[in-house]
Amino acid sequence: MGVKMTSEPAAxxxxxxxxxxxxxxxxxxxxxxxxxxxxxxDITIRALETLAGADVIACEDTRVxxxxxxxxxxxTSLTPYHDHNAASARPKLLARMASGQAVxxxxxxxxxxxxxxxxxxxxxxxxxxxxxxxxxxxxxxLAALTNAGLPTDRFFFEGFLPAKAGQRKxxxxxxxxxxxxxxxxxxxxxxxxxxxxxxxxxxxRQAAICRELTKLHEEVRADTxxxxxxxxxxxxxxxxxxxxxxxxxxDEAPPxxxxxxxxxxxxxxxxxxxDAVSEIAQSTGVPRREVYQRxxxxxxxx
Length: 302
Prior knowledge:
Radius of gyration: 25 Å
Order of helices and strands: EEEEHEHEHEHEHEHEHEEHEHHH
Strand content: 15-25%
Helix content: 25-40%
């Protein structure tokens, strides 16, 4: 923990439970600081020291970040950095680093760069030779994944699905065969429709809806996708931040030779050889080379 203060100035300090602490001045560079996703106590001592010891904090919404800083008595100045001003704000932040300043980057909640802007700043800072340091901490996707009761040995983070129904259906079709637990973000007003589309595209998979994680009204509901879709279509509470966690597809035995031949013949009636091979390899899990060799033989027979 930082050194307890006696008569230090207000700058470069933070407060925990009424105790004042001095923060060491951070060296020049870019610091990626994870911040709470709800409960303000979910922050590390290192993160507080860095935020208090930086020269400036770049954030998505200064009003959101100011609440966190006020809670811990941190007086570091804020500057907005988000998708709409990044092109103009990025050179200014790089100039600060070049002059020897420490820039801390935070998102509104959680870990920067996880479904948040910022990767271009990281890349530009590294290209310019500045030190980039990541301070790990809260993440809504990982909190939901560990709370869902589904396998965590392999997972795929998707973020938000497309808002338009057609694009969403297409993307769900692409996600359907990924052999991993899926983690998605969703908003309350779209949740019921999204669950209905997921149930249609994925079938009866187990899933969990994780809402308001770390907050007073935290809720985790686990069931099949179709049952969850019915529950939320009937008006179950959807306020707050929502993460959907979905089980991976069930293991399926590959088709036997006769079944594979039938699939290949059907595909060759509507697709070119190349497209048929790609589709079948993806949908059945049979190695592409094996499908290609068999498709060549059947195509010649045709």
